[in-house]
């Protein structure tokens, strides 16, 4: 059964009426605990990450700035990122939750899901942005690399926004494959994440952006991911898989123009579990509370029942309605195929 890492202490990151607020994780945990998918015995408490953990990714100057900013009562760090007096300690707890999820996978769980906040994938080494303070996934990866001696990682990020912080941190790293499918950056924050943002120096070819046009649907996503995910993963051969989970690509989310339905989140759970066999998942975006509830049920259902559901998907090859796959999606795939041909045969 999927392990979930969560604590009510995340409420101490008090963002008021901001769209990224405690109601998000409460909505997820309420539906998971009320369903038969997650038992109380499978909910684990996080511990705060240490400063040593955080400094594997972030600069000491930045960490001290956030500490002092929150100590003075918080406020707006930038135009859309809010912190409160309790946000520094809570951000360390969110990092600790992600690390705990990874440890649970190493201890034998097939999947573990950190339902924490604040989110992390926009945070760079020295800057908070996009609702993010510390980069939960990046810190977890560096913990696994240094403490657990894991060498090769694949990150899959399906938040509707490009995880610019995570990408930047590992942009020159040949041992970290970062794949992000997101709304194309001309129409959505953070304004980068094009196909040609593909890594640099030894990390060239290790940053694979799939920028999807507005109004892309689940058939578009499945069409392109089925051609890329497995091929790249098998070629790269990671030792450990990390997934940044975002529900803001849903058609009912207020912050994007992508039109995914609930079914996509079950499908991606199945696809990633079938590929990886073990997954560490870390919550990022998703801002409609009803959508967060229903899509998390679908995601966990996919993770828990991936073998049976994969057989059903394989049997029903027409579950992708190719008449609903936009021509723009086909063009994006052909561009990716050409640009990444020196690295992967996609």
Q: What is the count of distinct domains? A: 1
* CATH homologous superfamily label: Histone deacetylase domain
Main structural class: alpha/beta
Q: What's the CATH C level?
A: Alpha Beta
Silhouette: globular
Sheet with the most strands? 8 strands, parallel
Question: How many β-strand runs?
Answer: 10
The overall pLDDT average reads 97
Helical segment count: 11
- The fold-level CATH name is Arginase, Chain A
Distance between the termini: 33 Å
CATH architecture grouping: 3-Layer(aba) Sandwich
Binned, the helix content reads 40-55%
Rg (C-alpha, Å): 19 Å
Succession of helices and strands: EHEHHEEHEHEHEEHEHEHHH
Structure, described:
- The model has no long low-confidence stretch (mean pLDDT 97).
- The strands form 2 sheets. The protein has an 8-stranded parallel β-sheet, with helices on both faces. A two-stranded antiparallel ribbon has the order 3-4.
- It has helices spanning 22-34, 51-54, 60-71, 87-106, 136-147, 164-169, 218-236, 262-276, 289-304, 306-315, 327-339, and strands at 3-5, 43-44, 74-76, 82-84, 111-114, 153-157, 176-183, 207-212, 240-245, 279-283.
- It is built from 11 helices and 10 strands.
- It has 346 residues and is of the alpha/beta class.
- α8 runs parallel beside α9 (289-304).
- The protein has a single domain (3-339), classed as 3-Layer(aba) Sandwich (Arginase, Chain A), CATH 3.40.800.
- The longest helix is centred in the N-terminal third of the chain and has 20 residues, at 87-106.
